[in-house]
Amino acid sequence: MAGVRESQPPRDEKHDTFNTNILWEGDKMRLSIIAGAVLVAFAGSAMAQALKGPVDDSPITQNWAPSKWGADDRAGSSNHTKNPANIKRALATIKQNKAITIGKYYHREAPAFGPRGWHMWIPGTPTGGPFGKNALVYHDELVTTQIGQIQTQFDGPGHIGVNTSKGPMFYNGVMMWDAYERGAGGQVMGMGPLGVEHVGENGFVCRLVVLDAVSYRKSQGKLSASEEMLPIPKDPKSPGIVTEDDVKGMVKAMGIAEIGPGDCVALHTGQGNTWGNGRYKSLTSEQRAAARAVFAQGEPGFGISACLYMYSRDIALQMGDTSANDAQPFGEQGDGYAVPCHTEGMTHRGVWNLENVDTESLVKAGIKEAAFIWAPLRIIGATGSPGNPVVLY
Predict the structure, then answer these.
(1) What confidence score (pLDDT) does residue 47 get?
(2) In this structure, are residues 372 and 264 in contact, taking their beta carbons and an 8 Å threshold?
């Protein structure tokens, strides 16, 4: 999850490569010269340049790069899947030989962050046919969406960075300006070395630890028996913020092995229940609008201490039933940080994040630990991926 960022330096309308007045002139040579000049000018001014707004040089002063996986690594924590011991550890959790999927429904009325949205059409009725003696007909679909950042969504290497004095820096020290794959007229066509396909080449097979924060807060007397979600945090002491001590307490209460290298961790806050798989298709448009309203107010989730603890345990993936998995608008540090687990996890360490998963189904099945199997789509240059992970237990 990320907010609106300051864009690239404003275009000079007289020399904009996409200015309609220039295109109407039809002078291809002149257009090529202008396009080249604009691209060169952009390269000279934008490279190694911070965006307007807050600047944080922690990635530079704290030497966030190279990562533990090496200076040339592009896959981050998905490298854990290469370790046969991690796969053995995951498969050992399967006791009942059952499976469930935990991806949420993709739909135009489902909650989405900010201006994002899912828009799907069926072109043609039918799209093609009939063909052949068997009179075959078929349908396609046309989708316009933020393909890697909608509903159940995986945050890849190109999604989250930090605006430093040298420019926006992403995982393993890659500068945003250097990463961009450009097409005609300088149009950014992909994230280059930060593309999600690098993670997709490994995928994830891991022991899944399910943290039911709703039941845990009830056991502490901080949530009533009738409540099904943690509160949206309005201050740093809110029970809607899951801390390091909470994570340790939940694991201990379940009586399972500690979180370890290569594990995946899922947090159930209950907020995702408002549009959970068990009820979404039966909700009215008004009820779906109400779910979107709750979604827009903020969300319970991990505090920074919990995330730093999990990173110290060398996890492969964190996930949850909210849009970011970070507690917001308030975290343990107050409301001055924008989803800090994102930058500390993904930008700093290459520990990836999966959002809006159906943790309610995991809790209802009584799953404490299981085998999690999933890989992001190999979309070259994308910031993330949709998905529908499989959990075996």
Answers:
(1) 53
(2) yes
